[in-house]
Amino acid sequence: MVGGGPGAFIGDAHRKSIALDGKARLVAGAFSRSPEKSLQMAEELNVDPERCYGSYQEMAEKEAAREDGIEFVVVVTPNASHYLG
Fold first, then answer.
1. N or C: which end of the chain has fewer CB within 10 A?
2. Is the distance from CB of 31 to CB of 37 less than 8 angstroms?
């Protein structure tokens, strides 16, 4: 997950939706630009602190190198940070 840190409404909504059918698990994230908030969120979600990243770029690089790396990413950043091409 990218975004969805402490207090982020849409992150919680997406996590609840992901859990509905039990087919996916949240195993890694770059939850906040703040390392402290990101680690706080990882702890709350029982995500291994080693899989809590400072940026989506770092997450992509490190997860790609893992045998058990992520299979998909949910981006739940605020609308103002979305790309407008």
1. C
2. yes
